[in-house]
Every structure is written in structure tokens, then in C-alpha cells.
Amino acid sequence: MGEPKSLRVAYGEALVKVGEHNDKVVVLDADLSHATMTCLFAEKYPERFFNMGIAEQNLICAAAGMAYSGLTPFISTFALFGAGRAYEQIRNSISYTNADVKLGLSHSGLSVGEDGGSHQAVEDIALMRVLPGMTILVPCDPIEMEKAVFASLDIKGPVYIRVARPVCSCITKDNDPFIPGKPNVMREGTDIAIFATGLMVSEALEAADILKANGISAAVLNFHTIKPFDSEAALNWAKKTGAIITVEEHSIIGGLGSAAAEAIAEISNLRFDRIGIQDRFGQSGKPADLFQRYGLTAKDIAQRCTMLLSKGYSQSWL
Amino acid sequence: MACTVEEKQRLQDIARELRLTIIDVTAWSGGAHVGGSLSIVELLTALYFKYLNVDPERPQWEDRDRFVLSKGHAAAALIPVLSKRGFIPEEELKTFNHFGSPFAMHPDSNKVTGCDASTGSLGHGLSIAAGMGLAARYLKKDYKTVCLMGDGECCEGSVWEAAMSIANFKLTNVITIVDRNRLMIDGFTEDVMALEPFAEKWHSFGFDVIEIDGHDFEQVCSALEKGWNATEKPVFILANTIKGKGVDFMENNVVWHYASADSALCEKAKASILNL
Questions:
Q1: What domains does chain A contain, in order, with CATH numbers?
Q2: Is-cis flag, bond preceding B197, omega within 30?
């Protein structure tokens, strides 16, 4: 069992390890190196760390130029300013050219906390998902974060790694497989399958415990890769359980829920629901309070699962 | 002297042929950004036939000098110059813009041999060049990166982010050029969104500003020479040009920003070029 750690710290430490293995790896940041934790890499490898200042458009395209010149840049800033503000730079200079750039964008989702709605990227997965050739990894704990950083190096082309801010416990083990594109079954179950990603995986596991106490057998799948999406796994679990619920710290539009819906839409009589941010912005608060307010806690997930499985189910409660 | 009399003659001959090919491409393609392609002919000719250390036999040679055409809409000039330099068979230019062709309105480096960056979305190129310059420094390579932008393009805020970073990192291995033809799509730059005092802006950002007539080979070569030898400050070349240069009825007229050409127009345009 690894020690509890912020995913951004795990990301920063993983970059240092990657740097040891590969001298073509360079890191760029936009004046947030002590928040994204790329400062750890900067300290170890100052000659290949580039602070581009608060200028995200230049950050992205300069990294593209480095990739065209044979380097493998990892870019960090807040998810909102990278995926959001510099979206078109990512689209045209990285995705369109299939440049070997890794976007380790931090402070994603509601769990940014007190920075508030202006800084909480709850749409970054949606923005990245529509880009051809973009791989999207959303690690659920510090152990998976390190695996994701290393796995991204083996993928030729752009990779988006979603990094969250809070400290979280390790729910996976060192020897668990991490194969991009293949979700991990965290818990077997027969009545319903919970598809979760990122910080929501631990909430989903807890929800499965609550459900179990109430006689409901819930499977939990860790979708650490949103793209390429494993439609086959989604279909198989839909057929197996007849009920799917997705959970993500992201808008219900365009993320894991949408990817799952697209994959399983053809199945009739399927009970399906998406838990996430209901087409609204975030707000300031402690992550735990926000998860409660936005219905993302284990209790909420268990309740929604129970409702989905109830006889006269309808979504009218929304 | 940066350019001998014989060399000037040689470059002028190439430039004339390139202008004729740009008119052909405008016809073959069904439409091209002809005005802004004609304005950069001398700049491209001097770069590809005198300064850039590139090798058509090894287009991906890692020590080559890089060129980023940030004003990617002028692919109708870049692709003919790459062809003339030996990267692309001349016959292939006839497919320009056609379905399945590697050549489109904006250059795609994954499809066009010898092209170092996919451009067209304005305001990307100078940042890409900055990244190439930083990579060269880290990899301990001597190559230069030249970026050519349009003047209208400099409305993009990202251009100034890039400028700040080139000065900050003292990237003397990056040479920045602006094609100052004074026209953008909706009219004169000074009417649409004033750029002046333009030279002062670049100077204050930390560049060694060299203002030239972008159609005079002696001045173009002299400025590029300074760029190649820069050690203190990165060089910015403000190339004053004429949009549509060489075709009398296209010169300095915004309607020729983008145009198609039938055979009669081609003939008229070529006659004007040959009288230049």
C-alpha cells in the first residue's frame, strides 16, 4: 500500500523518474511549477525545464516546436488554462500534427476546491476527447499516476494526463496492470456496474460497500483511460449486469458518461445513468463539501444505483 | 557585401520563375492566397537559395536549418520554392488543393516534404520557432530557425507571448521576419487594427530591429546575414513589401489577397511579371 499523496505530487515525482531514464524528456510550465509540482523536475534538471511565464498559447506551441525537433515535452499548467485557453493551439499544433507532446494538466475537476468555479476545469475531458489521436488518461491514485506518466512515453503522439490537486489514498497496488485503453475491474458484481474515473474510483468502491450491505452486488470498473474508450468492455458489462452508472468529477456532457452512452446506446432495456457535474459550473469550497453539494459522494452514488435498480425508475428526481 | 552582382542576378532570375509558378499554382489550385505569396518571393528565394542549410536528399536531417512559414496561407509560395529547391517534383504542383494532394491552402508538415511545421492558424509559428530554438540549444546544435509572419498576423496576442519568450531566453538562433505588406483581409492594417509604431514595438520587446525593402536582394541578404551572426540580441527583420508584388494590377490591392485565375488572367499576370 503506497502512502497517501496528492496526485500532483505523484505526477511531479514521476516526471523526475522519467527524466532519469530519458534525456529527451523536457518539461515546460507556465508560472505554476510549485502548484503543478514540476518544480521537482526543475530542481533536478534545470537545463531542460522551461518556465514560459503566464502565457499558455506560447507554452503549447513552443512545446510543439520542441517535439518537432526530436524532444518529448511534458507540459504543465492548470487544466483550465491549458485545455481551455490554449485549446486551439493544442488542436492545431499538437493534435493535428500528431506531435509527441504530453499534457499533464493539473487542478482539474471540482477538487481544485477554494479556487472556485473560474478555476475548476469540469470540461477538459470533453475538449480533449474530440481531438483525433489524443489519448486521455485519468489516474485514480498516486500509484496509477506514476504508471500513467511512464505509459504516456510509450504512446507515440499526444497524451492528456488529468491531474487532480487533493491528497488521496492509494487504492491500487504496484503490481496491478495499467494498460492504456483497458479499464481495471476493481470489484466484481452482478446487479450493476459502476464505471468510475479519477478520484471517483475510491468513492465508487465505497458506494459498492454500502450497496453490498443492502444486498446489491455492484461491480466497479476503473476507467483510467477515457480515450481510446474500451467500448467492448462497456458493452460486455452492460449485457452482464443490465445496469450501468458512470461517475466522474467532470461535466456529464462529453466525458466518461458520454463515452459510455455512445458505446452502449444500442442495447435495449438497459438501465443507464450518469453521475457528474450537471451542466453547471463549480464553486469555492473544500473538495469534500463540493463533492457532497454536487452529489459525488459514495452515499450519493449508492443512492443513485439503488434508484436506477428500483422498479419504477425515472430520472424525474433530477 | 552580402550579395554580389552575379548572385543578385541569379536570385532575381529564380524569383521571377517563382512568381510565374505562383500564378500557375493559383490557376491549378482553383484559388490561392496570391497577394501575400507574391510579397514574400524575395525573402523565400534568399532563404532557400542562399542561407538555409537544408538538403533535399535528407529532408528530416536533424542538423538542418528550420523554416516556419507562420503565415501558412502563403503555401502557394512556399511549396513552389520547396519544389524549385529539389524537395518536390515540379509536376506534382499541378495537384495543389486537389482531393488527395499533399498540397493544400495551408502547408501540412506530415504531407509536404521539406516543410518543417504545419501552419495556417495565425499566431502559432513564432512560438513553434521559439521551441525549435530552445531545442537546438538544449541539444547543442548549431542550426538556425527562421520564422516568417504576416503583419496582420501580429494582431494575435500569442505573437507577443512568443516575442517575449525569444527575448527572455536570448534565442539568437531564431530569426524573426515580418512581411510588412500593410494589408490584411479587410483592408489596410492601419485602418483595421493599427500596428504602428511597429518597429518600436519589436525594439522594446528586446529585438535588434532591421528594417529593409523586402524586395531588394542586397537588403534582404544583408539583414539575413546579421540574423545568422547575431550573438547579443535576437534579430527581427521588418521587411517592407508590396502585396501582389510583380503583377502590376495586383499590387497593393486587397482584392488579390485570395483569388482564382483563368487562362486569360494567367497570361496577363505572367506578362506583367516578365516585364518586371
A1: 5-168 (3.40.50.970), 184-311 (3.40.50.920)
A2: yes
Would you tell me which residues 111-150 of chain B have a C-beta closer than 8 angstroms to some C-beta of chain A? 116-118, 120-121, 123-124, 127-136, 138-139, 145
Residue B169 CA to residue A110 CA, distance in Å, equals 36
What's CA B61's distance to the chain center, in Å? 21
Residues in contact with B12: Cβ distance below 8 Å, sequence separation at least 6, in sequence order: B217
pTM: 0.96
Of A62, A71, A98, the CB nearest to B127: A62
Q: Are strands A159-162 and A167-168 parallel, antiparallel or unpaired?
A: unpaired
- DSSP result, A213-261: HTT--EEEEE--EEES--HHHHHHHHHHHSEEEEEEEEESSSSHHHHHH
Does the beta-carbon distance from A69 to B131 stay under 8 Å? yes
Number of other residues whose CB lies within 10 A of the CB of residue A57: 27
Angle subtended by helix axes B263-274 and B5-29, to nearest 10 = 170
Neighbour count for residue A168 (Cβ, 10 Å): 22
Residue B233 DSSP symbol = S
Residue of A nearest to B107 (CA): A97
Assign domain B5-275 one CATH number from 3.40.50.970, 3.10.180.10, 3.40.50.12780, 3.40.630.10. Answer: 3.40.50.970
What value of ipTM does the predicted structure carry? 0.95
For chain B, what are the domain ranges? 5-275
What residues does A168 pair with on adjacent strands?
A5
A316 secondary structure, DSSP code: G
B63-98 pLDDT tens trace: 999 999 999 999 999 999 999 999 999 999 999 999
Please report, as a single letter, which amino acid is at residue B262. Answer: D
Compare CB distances from A97 to B110, B131, B157 and report the shortest one's residue: B110
Helix (H, G, I), strand (E, B) or coil at A66: helix
DSSP string, A248-296: EEEESSSSHHHHHHHHHTT-TT-EEEEEEE-SS---SS-HHHHHHHTT-
Q: How far is residue B199's CA from residue B212's CA, in Å, rounded to a whole number?
A: 11
pLDDT, one tens digit per residue, over A191-206 is 999 999 999 999 999 9
The answer on pLDDT for A1 being more than 70 is no
Scanning B55-94 for CB atoms below 8 A from A yields 62, 66, 68
Which residues of A lie inside 8 Å of B (Cβ-Cβ)? 26, 47-48, 50, 52-53, 55, 57-58, 60-71, 73, 88-89, 92-93, 96-98
CB-CB under 8 Å, A68 with B131: yes
Task: Indicate if the alpha-carbon torsion angle B110, B114, B119, B120 is positive or negative.
Answer: negative
**A127-136 pLDDT tens trace:** 999 999 999 9
Helix or strand holding residue A138 (H, E): none
Give buried/exposed letters for B200-220 (b at 16+ CB in 10 A, else e).
ebbeebebbbbbbebbbbbbb
Length of chain A: 318
The answer to whether the CB atoms of B129 and A65 lie below 8 A apart is yes
Residue A255 C-alpha, separation from nearest chain B C-alpha, in angstroms: 27
User: Cα Rg for chain B, rounded, in angstroms?
Assistant: 17
Contact B62 A65 (CB under 8 A): no
Q: Are strands A218-222 and A243-251 parallel, antiparallel or unpaired?
A: unpaired
What CA–CA distance (Å, rounded) separates A81 from A244? Answer: 33
